[in-house]
Amino acid sequence: MALSCVVNVLDPDVIVIGGSISNAYEFFYEAMTETLKKHINSLPSENLKTVRSQLNTDKSFLGAACLVLPML
């Protein structure tokens, strides 16, 4: 449901599922896409893609660190 709200507000072309939750992607993919199609506006649903991140789960920590380090 939270992704539905984000899609309706931001209208992204792609949702990338990453981090440790991506390890269970195949278990929730169908339910997630079904819920998204039910709850998002018709225009975003035409082009929206959901994909699993190809990066390792610890790569998200490195990305977050890169955002913080320049501020120090």
Write up this protein.
By secondary structure, this protein is mainly α. The chain contains 4 helices and 2 strands, in the order αβααβα. The longest helix has 15 residues, at about 25-40. The chain is globular and about 40 Å long. The mean pLDDT is about 85.
Task: Explain the layout of strands and helices.
Blueprint: H1 2-10, E1 14-17, H2 25-39, H3 42-47, E2 49-52, H4 59-68
Parallel strand pairs: 1-2
Please provide a brief summary of the model:
This protein is 56% helix and 11% strand. With 72 residues, the chain is mainly alpha-helical. The model has no long low-confidence stretch (mean pLDDT 83).
Shape: globular
**Percent helix range:** 55-70%
Write down the secondary-structure element order. HEHHEH
Structural class: mainly alpha
- Radius of gyration, in Å, reads 14 Å
Q: What's the arrangement of strands in the largest beta sheet?
A: 1-2
What does the largest sheet look like? 2 strands, parallel
Determine the number of helices (DSSP H or I, runs of at least 4 residues). 4
Mean pLDDT: 83
